[in-house]
Amino acid sequence: MQVYLDNNATTMCDPKVVEAMLPFFSEQYGNPNSLHKFGSSTHPALMNAINQTYKAINASDNDDIVFTSCATESNNWVLQSVWIDHVLNGDKNHIVTTEVEHPSILSTCKFLEEQGVKVTYLPVNEEGVVEAHTVKSFITDKTALVSVMWASNETGMINPIKEIGEICKEKGVLFHTDGVQAVGKIPVDLQDVHVDFLSFSAHKFHGPKGIGGLYIKDSQELSPLMHGGEQMGGRRSGTLNVPYIIGMGKALELATENIEETMAKIRAKRDRLEDALLELSDTFTVGNRDNRTPNTILISIKGVEGEGMLWDLNNGEIGASTGSACASEDLEANTVMLAIGADNELAHTGIRLSLSRFTTDAEVDYVISHFKNAVARLRGISSSFAKQAPTKGGEVQEC
Ligand SMILES: Cc1ncc(COP(=O)(O)O)c(CN[C@@H](CS)C(=O)O)c1O
């Protein structure tokens, strides 16, 4: 049995999404900006996809949604253009973000620091969540932007975005949220939550890789990163990726049409899996389930290196990760586990399991069985663990 439990890295394209996309590769393949029928024949489906996208996040007609190639582009666009508009051409010089953002935020902030921008990387609490009062305390009159992810790709933990948005609105500071792990997974209602910018990416909610978007509140000014061609009203030049935009729209419709019911079904499987794995001695999972995306588990297994566990799971045809795929090449400790206070040894034991609406009960049963056997195998050969007698209480005593 093959079981895919790395849906926070990317998801399978829903077959219904593929079906919606197909006609726009070799039948209705015109450039939407062309004046002839080959181009204009794509417009009805494009408009439908745009409407599906607006509906999925409850954006208003006054707002802009600009299609990008991915959330990494969307994140880079917001950070670099706020720098251009409000630092280089304004009187601001400060950005507030968190220690646990995705590399596309953290690396871009590092680049901006090299250009002289002051960046505050806020700590997270023991649950991996940034607290709204902490954000408030670091905003100054020189702050150009606050950027806090809606939900963590590593832990699934959900940040207090509504509170932070109210603080930023009150202080007159622009607010960006990286919504990649929220859109299509939990309710995102931008008439209820104040954000100026929101990044999202289709391959996180069973759409195609290579298409994402940036929500821009009230269609406010934001210098373009991509010039030439004037598509999207000049906000993001480049020929529109018609099949992928249509695929993203369909994926959003499928992901959000009964989102509460879908979340409940995924959470039931996740909780059953998490409860079973926590029966193993000296394990813990990060974060309160009630404040976590319904599909994610970040579990620490004392005495078992994350990479070794991944290898064993992979041998059992189970796909998981030690954290963000972007960081999977390096054998560094999980940065989020370090940020919540785990020591370096423990931070190397994290395994991220992320389910989807396609995960079955039979797959969960298989993973439970294989995971427990793998832990027993790996602990049996672990020098650091073998000497210790695991206890129910989790406090392991020297033999
Ligand atoms: C919160 C967050 N923000 C941005 C991205 C990047 O999305 P792209 O569309 O691939 O550019 C991701 C993708 N995180 C994957 C791959 S690194 C993970 O394994 O966690 C994300 O989770």
Describe the protein's architecture and organization.
By secondary structure, the protein is an alpha/beta fold. The protein has 15 helices and 14 strands. Helix content is 39%, strand content 14%. α5 runs parallel beside α6 and α10 packs parallel to α14 (361-380). The longest helix is centred in the last third of the chain and has 20 residues, at 361-380. The radius of gyration is 22 Å and the shape is globular. The model is unreliable at 391-399 (pLDDT under 50). The structure holds the ligand Cc1ncc(COP(=O)(O)O)c(CN[C@@H](CS)C(=O)O)c1O. The site of ligand C6P has 17 residues, from α5.
Features:
about 400 residues, alpha/beta, 15 helices, about 40% helix, globular, binds the ligand Cc1ncc(COP(=O)(O)O)c(CN[C@@H](CS)C(=O)O)c1O
